[in-house]
Design a protein that fits this description.
Chain A: It is found in: Cell membrane; Cytoplasm; Nucleus. Chain A: It comes from Sinocyclocheilus anshuiensis. Chain A: GO terms for molecular function: calcium ion binding. Chain A: Its main location: membrane. The structure holds two protein chains of two kinds. By secondary structure, chain A is mainly α. Chain A has one domain: EF-hand (Recoverin, domain 1, Orthogonal Bundle), CATH 1.10.238.10. Chain A contains eleven helices and four strands. In chain A, the strands form two sheets. In chain A, strands 1-2 form a two-stranded antiparallel sheet. Chain A has a two-stranded antiparallel sheet with strand order 3-4. In chain A, helix 8 crosses helix 9. The two termini of chain A are 13 Å apart. The C terminus of chain A is likely disordered. Chain B is mainly alpha-helical. Chain B has a domain of 104 residues. Helices cover 70% and strands 0% of the residues of chain B. In chain B, helix 8 packs antiparallel against helix 9 and helix 13 crosses helix 15. Classes of the chains: A mainly alpha, B mainly alpha. At the A-B interface, helix 3, helix 4, helix 5, helix 7 and helix 8 of A face helix 8, helix 20, helix 21, helix 28 and helix 29 of B.
Chain lengths: 201, 838
């Protein structure tokens, strides 16, 4: 850990970053190492194919969407700041963080997490998950054994279930209501994302 | 019904068992039978008249007439008893497993011990003495090695090595701590007068402390297998218990030597020698294991011609590493552990896939079998009044200290480890770790080889060890599961999940998995990177076959495997459905297709059909007629779907989701399971996803190659080129249907793109659902990464194999058409196709 401070110094605006994301210096360094490892050509930013080189992502049915989520519209690269900020969505919710009334909602709040997921569905960014968009996701996530008809019926049902205003699409509010609380507790607080950045010791 | 079955089995068990008992009592001389655990001690002189006369098969001094058959019990006695006992023990396991409501509460190991009590009671009732018990020699030489080998061979070794530091600290320092403190505390209590008058000196207490500190992998795994804990905790407990055994044995030997030396002779020099010998034995054993691992890996490079016994080499050499270490008085357990852990990667790559499967199954059978026997015999051995010397103080204090010091040790060491860990091991995990310190057969084995001359109170120690074993295995084993559940109470109320909920849950899991991958699962710190470099450069060169080296590229390997499995499925399916009828019932397209495939895969068919037992397509209960009548192409592998079509209601939607949503790896922890070989629950799913992704990623390559520089390709590989034409380009529009992941924009794109380069990149546009708006899609002029370029050459071949198979699995109507149109072209390609090997 001798190089902690020197590594940190190399990252611009590290203080701001840490405050925004809530990562500890150790985490930041860890992520920075990883970022550099992914950035094989050393350009200081990542391109989609840098993510594509992560072989496990090929096993992920929605891996390509997730990669896409790292890139804001119109951009082909992602720099370290954005990278960290996106990862910060998946930090466990701090249970005993002092609540400051006028501080902005932390990145890793439940609703931000859900929003991240929502945008994976909502590829055309119109704030609604349409039937088509849902179908695409379902197709990606369901096994080959399911036929097209079944897919459609599932999609219809899913929309029906969530659709409160009967517009045949799921808005974020609706999405949030139907996303079970269980998610919150199980998948995020225990999320081992950070845990897996563990150092061998 | 279930009860009846259970009863019948129990009856069968008793019959088999009583046979073995009777067989034993028939015996007249009190010879040492024990090749295995059956030591015949006090044979009741039962001169069973008729049998005894003819027993001596080989000494018929005078025969009056030629006997047609003779009774030769003595000839077969030992192996017969061994086999009967094995059968008995395994039947015990069967009985245990009959009722799942029982095994969900009691751990199986505990149940087996209890059944052992019963069997032991019967033996005692018949013989009035315990004629069978677990003999340390048999335990250490015939039962333990395969368990350790299996455990280490199946060890998730990335996880193991990345946590090696923590594991070693727990295994070495933790064990020494336990041994020392338990020994000293017991001695202190003895001096304080807590256990009356015993003939035990401080050194003997230390020796006892050493043997009782052996956390037993067998017991630990048996319990933890059913409790799903996170992978770091799992590997810590598992790795520790495995290495801990080795350390305990070493420690035991050191103290044993001290005891034989006698108190007065021990001076500083001897103590230093003891410490040195500890390290030499432990690390020497590990080193020997690594040497054997290298030997095995190198041997598997050249065993191609004797594939049938390939798997046997591993087992024999593994066993030899154990024996060699024993011979050199190094730590045998550590030796075989490291042998298994180190060689697994290379031998899996070197050996044929079949041999790998064989090896795993064989090891599982052996390990599972001997584990069962160990537990049963731990129970049987208890029913022996000779070993029970009761000393309440000693026994209770031992249990107390064992538990307390385990907790103190684990918490203290974890506290130290947490200082340098990025993510501390949290308190509940620590608690589970400490609580998971189950003692088992190793402790018993060590206690049983105590020398009664040196340690007068051997039986007290043996009895106490047994009690500690029962206490930990049964009591802690039972409470472990509720405890883990209770500690992680966060399991929210189980509400009725909605479709949305189900889907989103799964989506989130996928997202998290992806994030983990992006963050780098194992972390790539300096050591990992350098080791990888070193391994790639030297180790693989030394230990891997040249073609295995090629296959080592994980993506290539996966691709190859997928193709192979597809082929297997196809053939299996074809065979299942019968021969000619099946072909005639379908349109010509599928026949052509089948023929083509047969040709293409002709060279591998004999091999792959052998594997098919692995795949369960779940079609056994589908009436054949329903398949026959269906106009869907023959190769539709998913027969389920035809059933499902008929029930389009909510329930089925839920069911479908539940069944077919891809699981993320998070559900699929790399647990080591003794009784189940399936390491991952969903290899098929992985295949599917992988194929989809790969296809959508590779699609751009192919079309780019076709579109951009066809001339060059043609001149170089005319045949190849022509073969992937039909499957590649023309198939594109058809293929979009099942996946729905390709926009037409894509083909236009590829025409306009100027370089191959852009295409690798553009895959994100084509992938499932990455819509037109995906910002990444706009970028076209990016060079493909190194990896991508490197993979280019083999892509078309593989894809070609893949494509027809996969397409055939479509059953949507539009696809039938696609298939038909496609397959008409197919036969022409035959001469060109079957020269390429899979």
């Amino acid at each position: 850990m001798g190089s902690t401070s020197s590594t940190l110094l190399k990252i611009p605006n590290v203080e701001v970053l840490m405050q925004e994301t809530g990562f500890s210096p150790a985490h930041i360094i860890r992520l920075h190492d990883r970022f550099k490892a992914l950035d094989k050509k050393g350009r200081g930013h990542l391109c989609p194919q840098d993510f594509g080189a992560i072989k496990e992502l090929a096993m992920n049915p929605i891996g390509d969407r997730i990669i896409g989520a790292f890139f804001s519209p119109g951009k082909e690269t992602v720099d370290f700041h954005t990278f960290v900020k996106i990862l910060a969505h998946f930090r466990p919710v701090d249970k005993n963080r002092p609540k400051e009334p006028n501080s902005p909602e932390p990145i890793n709040s439940r609703s931000n997490k859900l929003r991240f997921a929502f945008q994976l569905y909502d590829q055309d960014k119109d704030g609604k998950i349409s039937r088509d968009e849902l179908l695409k996701v379902l197709r990606a996530m369901l096994g080959m054994q399911v036929t097209e008809e079944q897919l459609e019926s599932i999609a219809d049902r899913t929309i029906q279930e969530a659709d409160l205003d009967r517009d045949d699409a799921i808005s974020f509010e609706e999405f949030r209501k139907v996303s079970p609380e269980i998610l919150h507790s199980r998948c995020f607080i225990k999320a081992p994302v950070i845990m897996l950045m563990e150092r061998d010791c | 019904m279930a009860f009846l079955q259970q009863f019948a089995l129990l009856l069968a068990l008793l019959i088999v068992f009583s046979t073995s008992c009777k067989a034993a009592t028939l015996e007249v001389d009190s010879v040492e039978v024990g090749h295995n655990y059956s030591s015949k001690s006090s044979a009741t002189e039962k001169t069973s008249t008729s049998t005894n006369d003819s027993t001596d098969g080989h000494a018929p001094s005078v025969i009056s007439t030629l006997p047609i058959v003779t009774w030769k019990w003595h000839h077969v006695e030992t192996p017969y008893l061994v086999a009967l006992w094995i059968l008995t023990c395994w039947l015990c396991k069967l009985v245990c497993e009959l009722n799942h409501s029982v095994t969900s509460v009691f751990p199986e190991s505990g149940l087996l011990i209890m059944l052992g009590f019963i069997l032991g009671g019967i033996v005692w009732g018949a013989d009035k003495a315990q004629t069978f018990k677990l003999i340390p020699t048999n335990f250490f030489y015939y039962l333990l090695p395969q368990i350790i080998l299996d455990a280490s061979y199946c060890m998730p070794n990335k996880l193991f090595f990345s946590n090696l530091g923590a594991i070693l600290i727990h295994a070495i320092i933790g064990t020494c701590w336990n041994a020392g403190t338990v020994g000293i505390a017991l001695w202190a209590c003895y001096e304080g007068g807590a256990m009356g008058n015993l003939n035990i000196g401080p050194l003997q207490f230390l020796l006892f402390g050493a043997l009782i500190s052996a956390v037993d992998p067998v017991a630990v795994i048996a319990v933890f297998e059913e409790v799903h804990v996170n992978e770091v905790l799992y590997i810590l407990v598992f790795g520790e218990s495995l290495l801990n055994d080795g350390v305990t044995v070493v420690l035991y030997n050191v103290f044993d030597a001290f005891v034989s030396l006698g108190g007065p002779k021990i001076n500083a020099a001897e103590i230093i020698k003891g410490i040195v010998s500890f390290f030499v034995v432990a690390f020497g054993g590990s080193f020997l294991g690594v040497v054997f691992a290298i030997l095995i890996s190198m041997l598997t490079r050249i065993t191609k011609n004797v594939q049938v016994i390939e798997a046997g080499f591993i087992i024999v050499l593994g066993y030899l590493s154990y024996l060699t270490a024993e011979m050199l008085s190094l730590s045998a357990i550590l030796s075989i552990t490291f042998c298994g852990v180190c060689c697994q990667k290379y031998i899996n790559a070197n050996m044929d896939e079949k041999s790998v499967t064989t090896l795993r199954y064989t090891l599982k059978v052996m390990a599972n079998g001997s584990e069962t026997m160990i537990f049963v015999f731990l129970g049987v051995s208890a029913i022996d009044k000779n070993i029970w010397v009761w000393n309440t103080g000693f026994i209770l204090l031992t249990i107390f200290f064992v538990v307390i010091f385990r907790f103190i040790g684990v918490f203290f060491l974890n506290w130290i480890l947490n200082q340098s860990r990025l993510i501390p091991i949290d308190i509940t995990d620590q608690f589970v770790m400490a609580y998971g310190g189950l003692r088992g057969a190793v402790a018993y084995g060590l206690a049983a080889i105590l020398d009664e001359k040196k340690i007068p109170e051997k039986n007290l120690m043996l009895g106490t060890t047994l009690i500690v074993v029962y206490f930990t295995v049964i009591l802690q084993g039972i409470t472990m599961k509720p405890l883990v559940q209770w500690l992680k109470v966060k399991k929210a109320t189980h509400s009725d999940l909605t479709l949305n909920g189900k889907m989103n849950n799964r989506a989130f899991e996928h997202i998290l998995t992806a994030m983990e991958d992006i963050c780098g699962r194992m972390g790539d710190n300096w050591w990992t990177r350098h080791w990888n470099y070193f391994e790639d450069k030297y180790v693989c060169w030394l230990l891997l076959k040249s073609d295995a080296r090629k296959h080592k590229d994980p993506i290539f390997g996966a691709f190859h495997k997928l193709n192979l499995e597809d082929a297997t499925k196809y053939v299996t399916e074809g065979e299942r459905k019968g021969s000619l009828d099946f072909i005639r019932n379908y349109d010509s397209a599928s026949v052509d297709f089948k023929k083509k495939l047969a040709l293409e895969y002709g060279d591998i068919t004999p091999y792959i059909t052998a594997d098919m037992s692995e795949y369960d397509f779940g079609i056994d209960n589908v009436p054949v007629t329903s398949v026959m009548k269906n106009p869907i192409p023959s190769v539709s592998l998913d027969i389920h779907e035809q059933d499902r079509k008929s029930m389009p209601d909510d329930l089925s939607a839920h069911h479908l989701l539940a069944q077919h949503l891809y699981k993320s790896r998070r559900d699929n922890r790399p647990t080591y399971s003794r009784s189940h070989y399936n390491t991952s629950e969903n290899p098929d799913e992985m295949q599917e996803i992988f194929q989809r992704t790969m296809r959508s990623r590779l699609e751009p390559f192919k079309s780019a190659k076709m579109g951009v520089n066809p001339a060059k390709k043609l001149s170089k590989h005319p045949k190849k080129d022509s073969t992937h034409k039909p499957n590649g380009k023309p198939a594109d529009p058809h293929r979009t249907h099942p996946y729905g992941d390709e926009d037409f924009e894509f083909s236009a794109d590829s025409a306009s793109s100027s370089e191959i380069a852009g295409n690798f990149h553009r895959r994100s546009t084509n992938t499932p659902g990455a819509g037109v708006d995906n910002p990444t899609g706009n970028n076209t002029a990016v060079a493909p990464s190194q990896r991508a370029q490197g993979r280019l050459p083999w892509t078309p071949t593989n894809l070609r194999h893949l494509a027809p198979l996969r397409m055939s699995t479509r059953s949507t109507d539009s696809f039938v058409m696609a298939d038909a149109s496609l397959d008409e072209e197919a036969p022409e390609e035959k001469p060109g196709t079957h020269h390429t090997r899979l």
